[in-house]
Amino acid sequence: MKWVFEEQFSFFSCMQVILANSIVKLTVVKPQGWLAGIKYGGMDNLLDIKSPESHRGYWDVNWSVPGGLEPHQFNVRCRISGTKYNVIHHSYDKIEVSFRTTYNPSGLGIKLPLSIDIRYILQNGVSGFHCYAIYERPTGCPAFDLSQTRMVFKLRREKFHYMAISDEKQRIMPMPEDLLPHRGKRLIVPESVMLVNPINPDLKGEVDDKYQYSMDNQESGVHGWISSEPLIGFWVIFPSHEFRSGGPTKQNLTVHTGPACLAMFHGMHYIGDEMVTHFEAGEDWNKVFGPIFVYLNSTPTISNAHSLWLDAKKQRLLEEAAWPYDFISSKHYIRAAGRGSAYGKLVVQDKFLHGSLIPAKSAHVGLSVAKKAGGWQTESKHYQFWVKTDSNGNFNIKNVIPGIYRLHGWVPGFIGDYLEKGFIDITAGSETQLGDLVYVPPRDGPTMWDIGFPDRTASGYYVPDVSPIYANRLFLNSQEK
User: Where does the Rhamnogalacturonan lyase domain start and stop, copy by copy (predicted)?
Assistant: First the structure.
């Protein structure tokens, strides 16, 4: 297979880097690292050609200066723009390129106190590409607060109309023009728009709101869009959630009208200020966000369009099985040989319910640096590693990056958060035996009356129908009701 790898000037007099195998062709603006083009399946560009090159595929950060006196210092959205381009690896099997911006405190203005290295990887014979970013705080950086970071893909608005984020949550979406005043009516709830004169008349009367398509981290391993003429699937796949803030139950945005496809790594949504990452002056830090895999598939016939979603789900399983990847070139990304594991058994002691120990069946257990029970829900500086126990309460947390952790957890059917008292030191190649662990849920006495089931969902509660004039038809007969 012949690689295509070149650098050229674009129409806008900016340097471009072209990465292509026989399936996919990527165009990246140099040295900024903005993804300007994706050619695949007979479509010259899957990204929105009506948007500037800087607004098609990019990373951004929301940040602020603690105690800033000027309004713009409290919440700055910064689109990451590299200043140095480099080829990290180039062989028959793959190519990996870097677009790096390095923090420089000199000069005028307030600058994001982070050095960020954006990477793209294209492999031989692979229908898609991997991307990740390395965030670093060099020694001596000033204090700042990080409230959100993500990667955004804006797709061809005239092509991509159908989104899928789960087996049940799939639909034809509005056009971006439908959100404008002459076609949509903004409601009191921010970013909610009633479609009064949409381009697609079938959507008239519905309410569009990007927050309706949020998913828990643990449930959002793949989401994306399907285009028409040609039928192409564009999918963002998370092979792991270890680098995402807030643990398995943190909700994040996935897709929204645009059409936009998001890879959310850290954000305040649904939690608020407690989720903000605070960095002190001089605090060193680095973290690898990703890699994620952008998977592309296609079919020639409209009757097989749903198969693109089914195929994307299968690809997600393949990516998860391959984690941690063995082809990442950065020293900051820890491969399998450099990781360790921890295993044990969790049981519940509830004398008011049963005289003997109860296996913690289907419990969530995870390693996090958070030191307080439940603190993993707002922990964002480091990595988290979560699994579910089997029917006997046994668990094995594999591929853990070396570090000092606490073991956290919760058990369906019991209230409260479990926290193991001791610290757990994970080293490269270690297999840490934690033994039998006992969770004693908080109680003041026998249960006199209860409602619902303590499993951290609202599935046991009645959710009434919304007013029909403010409905999203996707959810009228939802299985979550």
Answer: 361-434
